[in-house]
Design a protein that fits this description.
By secondary structure, the chain is mostly helical. It has a domain of 39 residues. Helices cover 29% and strands 0% of the residues.
Length: 73
Amino acid sequence: MARIRNVFEIIELYGHDENFEPHTTPEFVPTTAPAGSKQKLDILAERIQRGMPLWHPEDSTESSSNLVGASEA
């Protein structure tokens, strides 16, 4: 049986994600991308696809002053 690569594959196979354990590799490094930025969202999406944890303990939590809320756009 092929190795489960990410949470989506385990949900497809079993109908839930209760047994999924994300894995870390040397590529699982913190990001300095501002919280809520497109760059941060792209990094989070890549982590999910690779089966990594979503959040790195050392990820930046700073937000960019250039971000605009939906009500302000």
